[in-house]
Give the backbone structure.
Amino acid sequence: MEDFNGLSLPFRLIELNSGEQLFALECKEIRTLGSKEELSGTFEVIYKCNGMDCHFECDITIGNIYYFYLELDTAYDILFSKNAKAVLNNYNNDRTNIVFEFDDKCRCKAHGTIKNSSDQYRSSIEFTMSAERSEICDALVSIDKFLNELSQVKGDMDFF
């Protein structure tokens, strides 16, 4: 394990575990580019289901995580209102697209397509699964900790 300013890497940002399926997003590495005002990260998707065990890098940035956190926090704050959603993608490209959709019965459906950056985006996984309210809360706490630690290094929350 590596340490970056109080974060033990890899750092798990999201984990959805239905018992039969596991989806997780981890930050594997943080680097400063030039000065500490510029940070970059390497993110990995973990997906396990029916004997499948995928681990690969995906195409997202710290800025993408920041925007997703804001959307997820808003959707959670309005108590899983109908049609609330949060989307994690890389500035509208089709290589990473993870959507958390909430309904008025306190249910969340997570689904998405993530293309593998290790093979020039030729392979991908698609998943759909339910997320428990506690998993959403855990993800918010985890992402908040991640962003706060990075803002300590960077000096602000300007991640885009």
